[in-house]
Design brief:
Layout (H helix, E strand, L loop, with lengths): L4 H14 L9 E4 L2 E4 L2 E5 L12 H14 L7 H5 L2 H14 L3 E5 L2 H12 L2 H4 L4 E5 L4 H10 L3 E4 L4 H10 L7 E6 L11 H10 L2 E6 L24 E5 L9 E5 L1 H10 L1 H4 L6 H13 L4 H20 L11 E7 L1 H13 L2 E2 L2 E2 L9 E6 L6 H14 L4
Parallel strand pairs: 3-12, 5-6, 5-7, 7-8, 8-9
Antiparallel strand pairs: 1-2, 2-3, 4-10, 9-10, 11-14, 13-14
Helix pairs in contact: 2-12, 4-12, 5-7, 13-15
Amino acid sequence: MSLLDPLFRQHLDRLDRRHTRRSLLPVHPEGAGRIRRGGRTLLNFSSNDYLGLASHPLLVERAGDWTRRWGAGATASRLVCGTLELHAEVEAKLARLKGTEAALLFNSGWQANAAVLPALFDRELLGAEALVFTDRLNHASLHHGCAAAGVRQIRFRHNDLDHLETLLAQRAGEPGTRFIVTESVFSMDGDRADVPALAALAERHGAFLYLDEAHATGVLGPRGMGLAALGGGRVDLAMGTFSKALGGFGAYVAGSRALCDYLVNRCGGLIYATALPPAVLGAMDAALDLVPTLDAERARLQAMAERLRAAFHGLGIATAGSSTQIVPAITGAEENALALSRRLEERGILGIAIRPPTVPPGTSRLRFALSAAHTDADLETLMSAVADAWSPR
């Protein structure tokens, strides 16, 4: 028992009363968009494995091969002796695919956002406090990075670039470097930013554009390498992950050579973290070989999402502006989301309830994430199960 256990229990009791307590529930992957939980095999519509690469033979083989050749761990941080030749090879391949001068690997998307933003907002670098304009629905890691830097966020309405431009114009005479921090695909609503318009706006106002591509990498854009390419070279930094559509683990930053070299010298999340191990690098390398060849899978994924949105709309279910492989079913109250999730699990479907604080109060939902591993029959099963279980209130 710890000194604070009574306080911990009080907090957990409050979460129970609000229907927002979370628990860890172990699962076992069954392949092809399925998992095993509680002794039952369920169709998994809650995973970020958008292209079904997590169990792809090439990723598994290369992860094992690089482990056998290079060992289980990198043994140190990147700046000590943890930078293997493999790190440099993967970063060079990634930069070529992203069309940037350089790329830099990080241990997770959260780590990248939480560590890179404070490095960019450094007053010693900029000479004054940064003016940071952020989308209200940005991922928690982006908000955390801003908080860690001690900057005040100037938040614009979700995907409202007119509002963003108004805010930028209002501060035109103020000192400080402008930053626009947003996502290309928003993980809870499944909608996307207008990257060409964002890039043009950033250019007009002399703002540094930071684009989180976690849920676009592998799925959208030329060769599946995200939407930053649509910015015409005006996206200053693109962050993305290998842990979603690319099937493995880790994250990256892509941009100029000077940017990446600066982060090597200033970003604590890279300087003080043990480097990614060979197995993870092998899976990354294999995914980068595969993703550019998967245009047919990407097209099918988007077609499935269109069908699912149409089915939900026919049932009167709001989908929050989704235009990607992420299709939320908005239930409103937390208890409604939990009830729908339970009813679907009874029908063999895993659809996890997403509740505050992950989403704003009153917008609890089931976040359905489609995968190229799902068959047409799987999609039909999902649509039928939701139609049977849906009980609007």
